[in-house]
Amino acid sequence: MGKRSVSVEVTPKQRAVLEPLTRAMVAPQRLVERCRIVLMSAEGRNNEEQADELGVDRQRVRRWRVRWVGASAALVDAENGGANGKDLEKLILGVLEDNERSGAPSKFTPEEVASIIALACEPPAESGLSVSHWTPPELAREAMKRRIVESISPRQVDRFLASRTCDRTRVSTG
Length: 174
Fold this sequence. Notes:
Elements: H1 12-23, H2 29-42, H3 47-54, H4 58-80, H5 85-95, H6 110-121, H7 136-145, H8 154-161
Helix pairs in contact: 1-2, 1-5, 2-4, 3-4, 4-5, 6-7, 7-8
């Protein structure tokens, strides 16, 4: 037998926010799932039952149950402080959001990215190339030649260009 599940309580005002989110046609599925976990937990259902019904692992159910319990005092305080429905919804959505992830630090500064995109906006002929359109490998070579960056892969250049802030007709990804 596993650990006893953390007890979850949901106030009527919180339920009034959570239930419509479980039926929302345009809500992200991860949000709908998290709302369902909170509501099922409040019904007294254990992690294993919820995991089986939702098709997720017990750890996920446990994570959102514990997160809700950790935030419930602040939610109740907000309700008692006169938070309206929209304010409460904002707070609840904040509780059910993903935590920030550190990830790897960016290898390129915003200035380097902007310079590479600006380079892509120039006609290749200005760099002495006899082609009519830039390709990611040519842009990568030119960025290193101009010492915009020490090194960069054509694939990374292509990722930067996906933001398309210049006339894309001068850049060929083929």
